[in-house]
Write a structure and sequence with these properties.
The protein is of the alpha+beta class. About 30% of the residues lie in helices and about 20% in strands. The strands form five sheets. Strands 3-2-4-1-10-9-11 form a seven-stranded antiparallel beta sheet. Strand 12 and strand 13 form a beta hairpin. Helix 9 crosses helix 10 and helix 9 packs antiparallel against helix 14. The protein is elongated. The two termini are about 30 Å apart. It binds 1-O-pyrophosphono-5-O-phosphono-alpha-D-ribofuranose (PRP), glutamine and magnesium ion (MG).
């Protein structure tokens, strides 16, 4: 999960892209970057850090032009510490290309070797997004039949890219002197939508909140496998470029990743979370009598809608027992277990009066490594709670995610190879209530608008172990993890800024 945005306008876009990135900050906190285009020349600034820290006035002034892209990064491949892996990525041929990517390629390793031996291309980082850019560059070069490049040639190159790459990808790219290209993987695993401003400006972004918050009107989601090319005259061309597209978006977007005020593929994230609270209520009453619960307390931030609905249905008071320090970012997307653990205590503090002598039901949207729940349950006990129950609006996370969420190894997942009772003992709560996998799918599906695109299912691989691209082997998972640098879960050797090894 990263946040990406692309804008094609008749007016300067630097501030607009900055504003959109701020609205997507929850999708990536590690690095940020913007590239703009003026007269066939790209202007780029990218660095590690949050949007506000990366862009100073002088950087913004140096981003002229009416077209541009931006990204906030949450590393899921390559090197979490490397500034060079911040996006956008640039390659000079053909034409000059820049690219931003949200997702994760599962065959990046094989592609990298192929790019070297067959396409004679050089990849200078461990990032799968640099691999993706070079595959796109190669295929645009092959598909170009005369100048200027035509939309049909661009779409042909996307068709070829779909055939070569596997995994999840929402992509926005600019082709110097030609236009802006965006496309989504054939399963629509990662989100991407398009909207317009009153002046005709096109904006493509990961979440509808980026459009709403910058005064653009949401038009629609880009369909799985579909590409849009906005030429320099501002005309948008659309084409389905995948052989057998299916809509199976990542269900974790609705559970945790996305902002609740976004709508993705016709499903309101907020409504999905309310529904998850409703189905969770049924599980709770089957395990703990509501009369035994004095108060329901959400674990801020993402669990709030589910917790309110749960409290409402159980008829138990809802209280804010934890206060969040708004200057500490999201814990889960921080790189490394040490920093995540420390951040839970920095980020959340108790209001002791809500706990003292009470039986509390804490509600979280999900339990992944258990970092948050373990700390929070202890904090509740320290504050004097009599009994501490914990409910999760998502089912146990038991399988690694290979599509752009940072949970690459099963061993780090608290529910992997453990029974619910074992997880409960590890977390230290008196009862642990998880959502059921089918109930989760139904709850999210029930939040679909009547005019939503037809849904073929969900990627729920971290809950059910079914990988929608059907191509993930244990070897892929090991390789993805080996390529991680700069996190405690990945390799420790942070100096391993790879120069490509021709024998690989
Ligand atoms: O079991 P864990 O490995 O701790 O991961 C799960 C926790 O991480 C997320 O919170 P986070 O602080 O990232 O974001 P939020 O403020 O949006 O809830 C999520 O909402 C859970 O609280
Ligand atoms: N979370 C993402 O979408 C990550 C994009 C890309 N795989 C990276 O690691 O930079
Ligand atoms: Mg949380």
């Amino acid at each position: 999960m990263c946040g990406i945005v692309g804008v094609a306008s008749n007016a300067p876009v630097n501030q607009l892209i900055y504003d959109a990135l701020l609205l997507l900050q929850h999708r990536g906190q590690d690095a940020a970057g913007i590239v703009t285009q003026l007269d066939r020349k790209f202007f780029m600034h990218k660095a590690k850090g949050m949007v506000r820290d990366v862009f100073r006035t002088r950087n913004m002034r140096a981003l002229p032009g009416n077209n541009g892209l931006g990204q906030v990064r949450y590393p899921t491949a390559g090197n979490a510490f490397s500034e060079e892996e911040a996006q956008p990525f640039y390659v000079n041929a053909p034409f000059g290309l820049v690219l931003v990517h949200n997702g994760n390629l599962t065959n990046a390793h094989a592609l990298k070797a192929e790019l070297f031996s067959e396409d004679h291309r050089h990849i200078n980082t461990e990032s799968d997004s640099e691999v993706l850019l070079n595959v796109l560059a190669h295929e645009i070069d092959k598909a170009t039949r005369g100048l200027p490049l035509k939309p049909d040639d661009v779409f042909e190159s996307v068709r070829r890219v779909h055939r070569r790459i596997q995994g999840s990808y929402a992509v926005i790219s600019m082709i110097a002197g030609h236009g802006l290209l965006a496309f989504r993987d054939p399963f629509g695993i990662r989100p991407l939508c398009i909207g317009r401003g009153a002046d005709g400006t096109y904006m493509v972004a990961s979440e509808s909140v980026a459009l709403d918050g910058t005064g653009h009107v949401f038009e629609r989601d880009i369909a799985p496998g579909e590409a849009v090319f906005i030429d320099l005259a501002g005309k948008a061309h659309f084409m389905q470029c995948a052989d057998a597209p299916q809509l199976k978006p990542c269900i974790f977007e609705y559970v945790y990743l996305a902002r609740p005020d976004s709508t993705m593929d016709g499903i309101s994230v907020y409504q999905a979370r309310l529904n998850l609270g409703e189905t969770l209520a049924k599980r709770v009453v089957s395990m703990v009598p509501p009369t035994d619960i004095d108060v329901i307390i959400p674990i801020p931030e993402s669990s709030r809608p589910s917790a309110t609905q749960l409290a409402h249905l159980l008829g138990v008071p809802y209280r804010e027992g934890f206060v969040k320090n708004r200057y500490v970012g999201r814990t889960f997307i921080m790189p490394g277990q040490g920093v995540r653990k420390k951040s839970v205590r920095q980020k959340l503090n108790v209001i002791a009066s809500e706990f003292k002598g009470r039986n509390v039901l804490l509600v979280d949207d999900s339990i992944v490594r258990g970092t948050t729940s373990k700390e929070i349950v202890q904090m509740a006990r320290d504050a004097g709670a009599r009994k501490v129950y914990l409910a999760s609006a998502a089912p146990p996370v038991r399988f690694p995610n290979v599509y752009g969420i940072d949970m690459p190894t099963p061993e780090e997942l608290v529910a992997h190879n453990r029974t619910i009772d074992e997880v409960r003992d590890l977390i230290g709560c008196d009862a642990l209530i998880y959502q059921d996998v089918d109930a989760m799918k139904q709850a999210v599906r029930a939040a679909m608008a009547s005019d939503a695109p037809a849904l073929d299912g969900f990627d729920a691989s971290c809950f059910d172990g079914v990988y929608v691209t059907g191509d993930v082997s244990a070897g892929d998972i090991v390789r993805l993890n080996e390529k991680r640098v700069g996190t405690e879960e990945g390799a420790e050797d942070n100096s391993r800024l790879a120069l490509p090894n021709p024998s690989e």
